[in-house]
Specification:
Largest sheet of chain A: 7 strands, mixed
CATH superfamily of the largest domain in chain A: Pyruvate-ferredoxin oxidoreductase, PFOR, domain III
CATH superfamily of chain B: Thiamin diphosphate (ThDP)-binding fold, Pyr/PP domains
CATH architecture of chain B: 3-Layer(aba) Sandwich
Largest interface: A-B, 72 and 58 residues
Number of domains of chain A: 3
Number of helices of chain A: 18
Oligomer: heterodimer
Radius of gyration of chain A: 26 Å
Order of helices and strands of chain B: HEEHEHHEEEHEHEHEHEHH
Structural class of chain A: alpha/beta
Strand content of chain A: 15-25%
CATH class of the largest domain in chain A: Alpha Beta
Distance between the termini of chain B: 56 Å
Distance between the termini of chain A: 35 Å
CATH topology of chain B: Rossmann fold
Number of strands of chain B: 10
CATH class of chain B: Alpha Beta
Shape of chain A: globular
Radius of gyration of chain B: 20 Å
Strand order of the largest sheet of chain B: 2-1-3-4-8-7-10-9
Shape of chain B: globular
């Protein structure tokens, strides 16, 4: 019996690849397996090769795998493009319709199942997904009842007749492949899962759910890949809580509407990707200047310009930190798991109101869209902290304005929302005094700049870095962010096997940079490998700028649009380590380690 | 009940003596009092430019945002608190150049706010460049040989974008302007009021006298039916847009807020943001 397995489905976009994956993995989740999904897709709706890969495991995993055990192919292209990933005794389940062939040199076993023919026989080729997922399920020898229950839930709304047809399609697919294979494949027999209940979701869903839990009631947003799922989730949910989503005319309207709604007292967010964030920058400056809380999600994708809209990248970090003209306080958080997408969204709303600053939540495409198992989320951890928001203001005899920007010890002033009696004050992006009135006085200017920029001096963020530091003086400290943590850990296991000691830090607070927290680990490590999906080493740059240690830092960069694979991280780290040994003799330094 | 004086504050506007914007400020203050508002029930959201400063000159909640974005900010305020009266305001550059996209979409979205444009056909705060409302041939610092672009017709554009309330007035006619702002506030949907607000410093063509000579006041046009969209469009075209009064109103169409399913009449801002454990469990269930 094995403890993990990788499965992939490939076909033309719009052909049922997504739905086959969804139903197959939902059923696996019900059995309690840990799952990690990866979507390969293009910026088009129909046509073009697409594939979804899932890694199935009996223990937690947060990385895609290097190889593949089972490939389900709706066309020959899917075989040709993906067969090289198959392990030596891998299996291809392909639609007999296109007379599939195994590429030369591949040792994979092919089962040609008349996927389309069975589906059409049962009424519609749309049921290809059921035939294919049924065949996959049967090869693994998993209980069919669990699968049928998932089918029932998927199609229950459409009536029993539809459910029955789909169940039949699953059965026919299963029977056919079992006859070809002579029963379930012993080689792919998975150990039973722990049976613990888990959630199975994408990061964007977790952000949407976190927003609802945080009391976000308005979202204003403009559609963009890979952020739109957040908007689509909230469109379904917010009306149930009295709120709404406005699809605005552009991202500038999205952010300014969110600022207006936050100013008026409702937790409001927007979400976008790089191009949208670029458009929002002036308004983010307004939020910083007027001390208006607002939460912005940036689901990073390949840039610059339109770049690689459906591919992985982590290249907005500098833009998020430095993008606004002038100088404002701002918080940039980078969750690194589905759970963190949920809890950090709540934290983002709290930080925004507590410090009265814009908070940017930066994910990356793989974290936003890769469907993964997630521990059950804890209701008791949902805390709403609205900071210094006051709902009643005593009358002032002198008729003066409310001091919305009162100079206080920690720089955070009392905040009142429109509608409250005696709370009238002015809000402007022009430099202003304590009541919000425009002021060009140099003395006032300096005080107000210091007030705003000083707010984050003692910022409290939950776990600004994640630390896995089993070694006092490791050969390598690997630093990453976002979705790369699981891949790094997997590589570390193999490095440790080779006798190379490694620690691992995930940076979760990009700005203000958690220097004090990270410093001791940089100090202890013999070398520091900073792993990131961009071409210029932005995270490494932040470390150098804030903490130094440039003599120890080595960039590990990948910017071809695909996530790091554990094997790549492993071999690069191995290189870095052995080269370091060489350099110790020659005195030279490796600066770049690009893929 | 508040009088218009309670909507005044002690700030001296930095507008030039004789600027049309003074009347707009006075008209907003009067209209707010006339419809029975208290100062804290009004939010004035303004853009950037000479006219954008207006939110600081009225004793009410006010936000002076960024250039061209008064409308999305104002719509956000209104969605967060339907109990507030929200007025967005700014100049013709703010609303018809940099912010034109928002103007058209605010019109078709029809959120219940009032948008007052102080239209002086020129850029004043940057000291005299052409505006989208400048007539062809109009000479400015940025068009020394005269503008070679055609002037925009914002109200025709508003009508064709599905506007439910379109009015125009003139700074010299405080009475009409005040009445129109009152009507705009009462209108259940988006109301656009364009105001000819002469720039006495940089616009030597479109002066008070020029407007007085060229404007047709709808109050004096017999048989004009402001519910007739075709007639409104025709009249705008006939007069080259130099028309004041209530040009068009559609009282049938519901506001955006009324069309959002389940969107409550009470201020969203006043509601408890917490969700119950039961609600949370329901939300989580779909990911099992």
């Amino acid at each position: 019996m094995i403890s993990q397995l990788s499965w992939k489905i490939g076909g033309q976009q719009g052909e049922g690849v997504e739905s086959t994956d969804r139903i197959f993995s939902t059923a696996l989740n019900r059995l309690g397996y840990y799952l990690y999904g990866y979507r390969h897709f293009s910026s088009r709706i129909k046509g073009g090769h697409t594939n979804n890969k899932i890694r199935i495991s009996t223990s937690p995993i947060r990385a895609i795998s290097d190889d593949l055990d089972i490939l389900v192919a709706f066309d020959q292209e899917s075989i040709d493009l993906n067969a090289h990933e198959l392990c030596q005794d891998g299996v291809i389940v392909a639609d007999a319709k296109f007379n599939p062939t195994v590429p030369e040199g591949s040792s994979a076993k092919l089962f040609a199942v008349p996927i389309t023919a069975i589906a059409e026989e049962l009424g519609t080729s749309l049921m290809k997904n059921m035939v294919a997922s049924g065949a996959s399920w049967a090869l693994l020898g998993l209980p069919l009842e669990v699968f049928n229950k998932a089918v029932e839930e998927e199609f229950g709304r459409k009536g029993q007749a539809i459910v029955d047809k789909n169940v039949e399609a699953v059965k026919r697919g299963a029977e056919y492949v079992l006859e070809l294979a002579g029963g379930p494949l012993e080689r792919f027999k998975l150990e039973p899962a722990d049976g613990k209940e888990k959630l199975f979701m994408i990061g964007n869903d977790a952000i949407g759910l976190g927003a609802v839990a945080a009391g976000c009631r308005i979202m204003s947003a403009y559609p963009i890949t890979p952020a739109s799922e957040i908007m689509e989730y909230l469109i379904k949910k917010l009306p149930k809580f009295g709120g709404t989503v406005v699809q605005t005319e552009d991202e500038i309207a999205a952010i300014t509407m969110a600022i207006g709604a936050n100013y008026a007292g409702v937790r409001t967010m927007t979400a976008s990707a790089g191009p949208g964030l670029s458009l929002m920058m002036e308004a983010i400056g307004l939020a910083g200047m007027t001390e208006t809380p607002v939460v912005i999600v940036d689901t990073q994708r390949g840039g610059p310009s339109t770049g690689l809209p459906t591919k992985q990248e982590q290249s907005d970090i500098n833009a998020l930190i430095y993008g606004t003209h002038g100088e404002i306080p701002k918080i940039v958080l980078a969750p690194s798991s589905i759970e963190e997408c949920f809890y950090d969204t709540i934290q983002a709303f709290n930080l925004a109101e507590k410090y009265q600053v814009p908070v940017i939540l930066a994910t990356d495409l793989q974290l936003s869209l890769g469907k993964q198992s997630c521990e059950l989320l804890d209701y008791s951890k949902i805390v709403i902290d609205r900071g210094t928001l006051v709902d009643e203001v005593p009358e002032r005899e002198d008729g003066s304005l409310f001091k919305r920007y009162e100079l206080t010890e920690n720089g955070v002033s009392p905040r009142v929302i429109p509608g409250v009696k005696n709370g009238i004050h002015h809000v402007t992006g022009v430099e202003h005094d304590e009541s919000g009135r425009p002021s060009e006085s140099p003395v006032n200017r300096q005080k107000m700049m210091d007030k705003r920029l000083g707010k984050l001096d003692k910022i409290q963020v939950d776990n600004p870095i994640h630390v896995q530091a089993p070694h006092q003086n490791p050969d390598l400290l690997i630093v990453g962010m976002g979705s790369t943590g699981g891949t790094i850990d997997q590589a570390r296991e193999r490095l440790e096997d080779e006798g190379i000691t490694t620690n691992h830090i995930t940076v979760r607070l990009m700005h203000p940079f958690p220097v004090e927290e990270i410093q001791p680990y940089l100090e202890q490590a013999k070398q520091v490998v900073v792993l990131e999906n961009n071409a210029t080493g932005q995270l490494a740059g932040l470390i150098k700028l804030n903490a130094g240690y440039s003599d120890k830092l080595v960039n590990m960069l990948k910017y071809d649009g695909t996530p790091f694979l554990p094997s790549e991280v492993y071999s690069k780290c191995l290189d870095v380590h052995s080269q370091a040994a060489l350099e110790k003799q020659s005195g030279e330094l490796v600066k770049h380690g690009n893929f | 009940m508040a009088t218009f004086k309670e909507f005044r504050n002690n700030i001296k506007p930095n507008w030039c003596p004789g600027c049309g914007d003074f009347s707009v400020q006075a008209a907003i203050q009067r209209a707010a009092a006339n419809v029975g508002l208290e100062p804290e029930q009004l939010a004035v959201i303004s853009g950037i430019g000479c006219s954008g400063r207006i939110s600081g000159y009225i004793n009410a909640y006010g936000l002076h945002g960024i250039h061209g974005r008064a409308l999305p900010i104002a719509q956000g305020v209104k969605l967060a608190n339907r109990e507030l009266t929200v007025i967005a305001s700014g100049g013709d550059g703010d609303g018809f150049a940099i912010g034109m996209g928002h103007t058209i979409h605010a019109i078709r979205r029809n959120i219940n706010i009032t948008y007052i444009v102080m239209d002086n056909q020129i850029y004043g705060l940057t000291k005299g460049q052409t505006s989208p409302r400048s007539a062809e041939g109009f000479k400015t610092k940025s068009t020394p040989e005269g503008s070679i672009e055609s002037a925009l017709s914002p109200l025709e554009l508003a009508l064709s974008s599905g506007a439910t309330f379109v009015a125009q007035s003139f700074s010299s006619d405080l009475k009409q302007l005040t009445a129109l702002i009152e009507e705009g506030i009462k209108h259940e949907g988006f109301s656009l009021i364009n105001v000819f607000s002469p720039c006495v410093t940089f616009n030597k063509v479109n002066t008070y006298d020029w407007f007085k000579e060229n404007i047709t006041n709808l109050d004096t046009v017999e048989g004009y039916d402001s519910s007739n969209r075709i007639q409104a469009m025709t009249k705008l075209m006939e007069t080259g847009g130099l028309l004041t009064g209530l040009i068009y109103q559609n009282k049938e169409r519901k506001s955006y807020e009324d069309l959002v399913p389940g969107f409550r009449k009470e201020a969203l801002a006043g509601q408890n943001p917490e969700i119950t454990a039961e609600q949370f469990n329901q939300l989580v269930a779909e990911f099992r």
